[in-house]
Amino acid sequence: MSLALVQSRALLGLQAPPVTVEVHLANGLPSFTLVGLAEVEVKEARERVRSALQNAGLEFPANKKITVNLAPADLPKDSGRFDLPIAIGILAASGQIDGARLAGYEFAGELSLSGELRAVRGALATSLALGALEGARPRMVLPPGSAEEAALVPGTEIYRARHLLDVVRQFLPGGPAAADGVAPEGDGWARMQPAARPAQPPAADLADVKGQATAKRALEIAAAGGHGLLLVGPPGSGKSMLAHRFAALLPAMTVQEALESAAVASLAGRFEADRWMQRITAHPHHTCSAIALVGGGSPPKPGEISIAHEGVLFLDEFPEFARSALEALREPLETGRITIARAAQRAEFPARFQLIAAMNPCPCGFLGSAQRACRCTPDQVARYQGKLSGPLLDRIDLHVEVPAMPAEELLGAPPGEPSAAVRERVEAARARAVHRQGKPNQALQGREIDAHLALQEDAGRFLQAAAQRLGWSARSTHRALKVARTIADLAGEARIGVAHVGEAVQYRRVLRSAG
Question: pLDDT tens across 195-252, in order?
């Protein structure tokens, strides 16, 4: 009768709680039982592990009663990440490797039937959990692809193994793990070294957009202050073109921001190494469900708003999204986080994104256009614009009209200002705000608004009169104030003047009625 313990980790949101894989071999009727609140794909590990051991030339104890427990029993486990620790546990319990030498190691990886190791999602989130541990940190053994992700986290010790046999060789009595953990040259086992990946410059440049000076100015203000932006204009006016160039205006990511963004992408299986240190622009189709947009499922998985963490969420055809999906944006727009609560479990994902939304002014798209007549009735326009609730529009700081440009103006227009030049001004304005208050202007809440905005007396009277005339809520007024603070920062002004407030007021609402 033999017992082996192997350490691994599950995934619960962005958390990676530890899991102990307990393998018990006993005499009795031959069987292979797996317990511990395992999902279907985890239970299927029995067949993958059996075939991998046999095809790798290792002994599978087919004449034993095998019991595998994934502890703690009340923690849900999914995916094939437990294949490798289960196989290692069986080998240790049957005496084929030295179980005592497994101490200080954690394992995760899916096994093919031949014993090759396949990448698992969430490797970077798992490595972040290891990096946050105090004191001695365990070594993590991962498959190719996953190991490269995990090695991006500073302070972690990550090993890559290509095949089950590569792992087995390390834990044979007197093997290389007793010395430095690195096998001889030519083996599939290697310690990963953190590689500094330079940020790749974005391909799309704002210089490609000709004209649209007001919209470009709004993009600059949104980038400098972290504000949301709604672009309203007819088809073909350049709304999508502007939105896809917005990420290039944002300040460079810090390593911590890049790690958080990459961890969410890794959890969703969408991490791309060549996008390291680049801000993501998530662009879901308007037919996506509320769960696809904000996250959910069982176990809970991140949605598009979390994929866009520290980046941009671009919602084209804004009113065409399901009402439930749009209303679900209200909480993360305020808090920067989304909580997915289910009867059995609860998960929290980061969702600090900048919203860029685009829409037509009416169903046909040509309301107010000087080039084509609108064919929509007043009722149709009201129903179309009414799909966006007042509380949601209140949470979008900038509303900008993007008119269609005549072809002759486009052909003769010179190239616009490049993204790099705009980004320099954005970074300078963002630095002023962070130096003053420790956060971008959009993130100011409550008393922070009064403490840091520095509003001139005449500018305050002007804003009060504008808010009363336009029927603004307190939220709308505060958001206009924060936009005015960003405009002042871009101008290098310490206090908000009437000109800054006047420009901010122009960006609050452009939707118009056909009647």
Answer: 656 556 666 889 888 888 899 999 999 999 999 999 999 998 889 999 999 999 999 9
The mean pLDDT of the chain is: 89
Query: Over the Cα atoms of the chain, what is R_g?
Result: 28
What are the residue ranges spanned by the domains of the chain? 2-191, 206-506
206-506, superfamily in CATH?
A: P-loop containing nucleotide triphosphate hydrolases (3.40.50.300)
pLDDT, tens digit, 9 for 90 and up, residues 342-379? 766 788 899 999 999 999 999 999 988 877 889 999 99
Return the closest-CA partner of residue 177 out of 101, 97, 88, 109.
101
Residue 494: how many CB atoms within 10 A of its CB? 9
**Residue 27: exposure state from Cβ atoms within 10 A (0-12, 13-18, ≥19):** exposed
3-state SS, 201-260, equals CCCCCHHHCCCCHHHHHHHHHHHHHCCCEEEECCCCCCHHHHHCCCHHHCCCCCHHHHHH
Please state the rounded mean pLDDT for residues 121-150. Answer: 89
Measuring CA to CA, how many Å separate 443 from each of 70, 143, 213, 326, 363?
A: 42, 40, 26, 21, 34
**Pairing mode, strands 18-26 and 2-9:** antiparallel
Cα 171 to Cα 85, 308, 419: the distances in Å are 13, 41, 53
The token duo for 198 is: 């330079």
2-191 classified as CATH 3.30.230.10: yes
Separation between Cα atoms, residue 138 and residue 104, nearest integer Å: 5
